[in-house]
Structures are given as C-alpha cells and as structure tokens.
Give the backbone structure.
Amino acid sequence: MIKTTRLVAMLAMLGTVAACSIRGSPPAPPAELLPPAAQAAIPATEAPAPPKVARAPIPTRPGGLRVHADCSARDESGYIESIKLAVDGGRVDLLEAKIDIPRRGTCQFHLADFRQTRAAPHVELHSISGSACTVQMWEQGDRFTVAFSDCQERCTRGAFDYVWPVELNSRLGTCL
C-alpha cells in the first residue's frame, strides 16, 4: 500500500513537472519538501470534504454464520489448500486447514491452537500461544471466507507471505 501511494505521488509530481516545463515555468516543489518556515508561508486551502457514504453493516444470517466444508483445491501454479471446517451459529466446532505453497512451504491451522473471541457479525479466533495470529471468517452472499493474519508461527519459514484466504461456497461446502 505504501509503495502504491508513493508511486502515485511520484507520477503526480512528474505530471506537474511535465506540465510546467511545457508552459515554461519551473515547477514548485511539493510542500512537504520545503523547510518549515516556507511551509508556514503557503496559504492553507481547504478542500471540500468528500461526501459521506452511509455504509450498511454486514447483514447477519438468522442463527449466525453456518458452514460445513471438507474440501481441497489446487490452482495452476500448484498452490494447494485443504480445509475441514464446521461453523454453527457462529461457533467454530472444527478447523483443520493446510496450505501448501510451491517452493515456499506449508502452513497449518488447527482449532486446538486457537480460542474463539468473536461469533458475529464475523468469527474471530486468536492464537492461544500469545502471538498476534488471528483467523477471521465471514460470509458475503454464497461466499464464505477464512482469512489468516500474522500467522508466521503456523508456517514453515517464509511461507506465510504467500498465503491467501480460503474461499468456500457456503451452501455447498466446496472450495472455490
């Protein structure tokens, strides 16, 4: 994200330089590159606030999240994900997930290594080891997502950098 923001800023600066050189006037340096005294001399312009968009909360299914899956999927690069998952009313009863990343390693997640800290509107599991490893689950339409965050400890060295969320069809319990 930071690299993208920097790239966009650099492209904007290059566009300004190009526009100014066409017109013959030297470009002004960005305000953040000026010394503090020069920054104070620049008049503040207030940009209009962007319109606020009302966001609806994630709709919750009556009775909470529910999915039963026992599936595996392999993509063309050899990335393999397999999962056994049972969630009833937002309570996780079974989680066994294994992700094999070609030439990188393997990650494994077992319910016994986590405690559930949230059941609605999304499920959240935290590692009992005290690390920041978190598993989150949510549903959007017929798609049920199981995502992993800060779980390097559950993987062979360096593999976690290549882990994607597991996507399931919540009605059929199949991997997508």
About this structure: Residues 16-22 have pLDDT under 50 and may be disordered. The longest strand covers residues 91-101.
